[in-house]
Fold this sequence. Notes:
By secondary structure, the chain is of the alpha+beta class. The protein is built from three helices and four strands, in the order H-E-H-E-E-H-E.
Amino acid sequence: xxxxxxxxxxxxxxxxxxxxxxxxxxxxxxxxxxxxxxxxxxxxxxxxxxxxxxxxxxxxxxxxxxxxxxxxxxxxxxxxxxxxxxxxxxxxxxxxxxxxxxxxxxxxxxxxxxxxxxxxxxxxxxxxxx
Length: 130
């Protein structure tokens, strides 16, 4: 019986722990940009406008590749929960000043072009293998 208590205690501690695993492949950064499609005037960013944005702004900065995902987002604002269609732009890139500047430029242009208050950005360190 005396052994059960320490093992149970260790099991409880281990539940809250995350074990870091080594990255495999080339160390890179995965950046996800969550781009809401609702405009301040109640309109939406059209498919044509989105495609033009990707072609004119994103692709020249990341010509090696990117991914776009359709999503249904929601967020809390002062007046309650807002739901909107969203495009998630996913780019895997080196952790360097050029890529950082490109991401900042993409966010700024999306905000300017479509009159957005913000673009959610999430960065994760990843290992890449082809």
